[in-house]
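SEQUENCE-TO-STRUCTURE ENTRY
===========================

Subject: a protein chain together with a token-level encoding of how that chain folds.

Sequence line: the amino acid chain in single-letter code, read from start to end.

Question of interest: how does this chain fold, as expressed in backbone structure tokens?
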Amino acid sequence: MSLFALHNMPNTILRIGTRESPLAVWQAQQVQDLLAKSNVASELVYIKSEGDADTIAPLYALGVQGIFTKTLDTALLNNRIDIAVHSLKDVPVQMADGIIQAAVLKRGSYKDIFVYKNEADLKNIGYINNEWKNPKSEIRNPKFTIATSSVRRSAQWLNKFPDHQIETLRGNVNTRLRKLKESNWHGAIFAAAGLERINLRPENAIDLDWMLPAPAQGAIVVVCRKDDEFVFNSCTVFNDKPTALCVKIERDFLKTLMGGCSAPIGALAEVEGKKIKLDGNILSVDGKEKLESRWIYPLSKSNELGFTAGEELLQRGANKIIHQIRNASK
């Protein structure tokens, strides 16, 4: 019996695979609610990922792309689950064979935020009267320490504040907030969406408006087996087309430059009327080198924008930075 026929049998309950963290469960529940609106019953299946097991090593040192997704992908291909729900920024640009994207949910906040310990320290990063004011050349404080697990966030921070110190911070959002509270760090960087979705954004947090997000940050993706027509059709009804287009462009940009989801590459595509705008950058791991640009295309010609933008940065010297990144990760 085909999977399509199996899922059309009465009382079929789709199995939604999710990691066990509160944020991952929240994301899976959003998909469960959307399926229920189409009268499709589902249940959550909790699966521990390898990425959750190691909360010390930086992500780039783990040596595996898709560290937070491959366990769910394996369960999907082994027919233990019917759907996997991921933060799209964690998904490798090349999905596993036999797995396809079924839907992208409407994007949440794409911003990074800085959670600080003491308000008095904000002057050390040029944040005064609720505004970013000081250029990086005026900020010199080698004792200022912030924490993050992201090489992208670290590189962009060091580009702006070259004298600051970076510490590694891993774990789910609850664990990271606790580690920040117990540390002597001045603050830590988080994805706004991750904290806001589970109502954990502290009052002592500010938006990093100058920091370009990871490609697809703030977007949730639903994937299924390639040959499972019923699941695909059940999910595609809640696919948000503007979000799907923007994250495709961002991920094409990432793929063209390097392909790794943990690289210090930022990208943000936004639909503006009948045009689409893409901001993109690539930095060296130490933040000393940076290439960036902005592209504006008609929506009718936006399908190749990510590839075109990536190729342009390669022609401007991004290959040199990519070589340095690869050497730094060895």
Remarks:
- The mean pLDDT is 89.
- The first strand starts at residue 14 and ends at 18.
- The chain is about 30% helix and 25% strand.
- The CA atoms of residues 118 and 147 lie 15 Å apart.
